[in-house]
Amino acid sequence: MLLLSALNQLEGASLIIAPGEIAIFANPEAENLGILREGRIQSEELLASIRVVRRTNLKQNGTIEIARGPIGEGKREITVDVIPLSEGDLVLVLLRDESEAQRVHEVRRDFVANISHELKTPIGALSLLSEAVLGAKDDSEAVTKFASRMQIEAKRLTDLVQEIIQLSRVQDSDPLQEAQSLSVSDIIKEALDQCRTTADSRKITLSYDQTQDANILGDRDQLTMAVHNLIENAINYSPVDTNVSVSTSLANQIITISVADQGIGIPEAETERIFERFYRVDPARSRETGGTGLGLSIVKHIVTKHGGEISVWSAENVGSTFSIRLPIQIPKGDEK
Ligand code: ADP
């Protein structure tokens, strides 16, 4: 049929819906959106529009929200056109993920405002320190002291800029669009290797209980960065001679990666806010460890974009456990 070959060449997702709301055609993009299960449309909003089109025989358009995965709050906003076809009560549905561009624009605007504020601190310190160096140019001891503080501030600035770039990359990307199949245990091992030097310098042992593994779909660098950030925080907010342990568990096609420490913990009232950009419980301590306040918001973005969610359990002076839950890749043929 001419229409089908045209739809197969169109960019974006398309469906043809027969009476009984059954999809008799879905192009690969439509399958990837996860809007169908066993040929049936999962979105009540879309079903409602299809019914209106059948009743009125008039084209409808609007936006609908669909979940990125079976858990978590990650949503995609999709623009839909529902068009009546004359042949046998069929309805054509065209779906596009355009609203993502609008969201990225809004997020970036807020982000720029936060960044300008955060950059002012180290830049202000550098300018004061350089004045102090000039003022003390005949006192070599003072010059050494100010210059080494300048080095610390310059490093802080570099880390901040690096994390800002990482966060904006994560915010702009859609890891599910070019997803690779990845083994969770490979990701954890790589993240652990990256953190080993810091852990050794703080006499913290890293352990990994490799009981359950699964494959997930996503971006290797981003997922490794997420696990890395959790391990690095666990190390930074723990006293020397303690243990940081990573473990996994699998249930209902969801894998949970947990990072547990025996550290300072987080007051209950703060556990919601720590995922916000630039939020730190104790800015002085975070400054000491070189924290930027961006690590956890990077993790949250990555996990949400992979259709998962992050949670934390914590008790002050006992420790914290951060858990990432991600949908696993279901082997072909096992889909229910
Ligand atoms: P930072 O760069 O300051 O570590 P994050 O976004 O990674 O920023 O974390 C935000 C805040 O959450 C930290 O400043 C710290 O107060 C708290 N936090 C994060 N992880 C832990 C942990 N494992 N134990 C105790 N506090 C933590």
CA(first)-CA(last) distance:
30 Å
What is the number of beta strands?
Answer: 14
SS strand fraction: 25-35%
Rg value: 25 Å
Helix/strand order, N-terminal first: HEEHEEHEEEHHEHEEHEEHHEE
Number of domains: 3
User: What is the CATH superfamily of the largest domain?
Assistant: Histidine kinase-like ATPase, C-terminal domain
What small-molecule ligands were found? adenosine-5'-diphosphate
Which secondary-structure class do the elements indicate? Answer: alpha+beta
Largest sheet: 5 strands, antiparallel
Q: Would you give an account of this structure?
A:
- The chain has 336 residues and is of the alpha+beta class.
- The chain has three domains: 2-97, Beta-Lactamase, CATH 3.30.450; 98-172, Orthogonal Bundle (Helix Hairpins); 176-336, 2-Layer Sandwich (Heat Shock Protein 90), CATH 3.30.565.10.
- The protein contains nine helices and 14 strands.
- The protein has helices at 2-9, 28-33, 44-56, 99-135, 140-172, 184-201, 220-236, 283-288, 295-305, and strands at residues 13-18, 22-26, 36-37, 40-41, 60-67, 75-84, 91-96, 180-183, 205-209, 215-218, 243-251, 254-260, 309-315, 319-327.
- The two termini are 30 Å apart.
- The mean pLDDT is 89.
- The structure holds adenosine-5'-diphosphate.
Task: Spell out the key features of this protein.
336 residues, alpha+beta, Beta-Lactamase, Helix Hairpins, 3 domains, 5-stranded antiparallel sheet, binds adenosine-5'-diphosphate
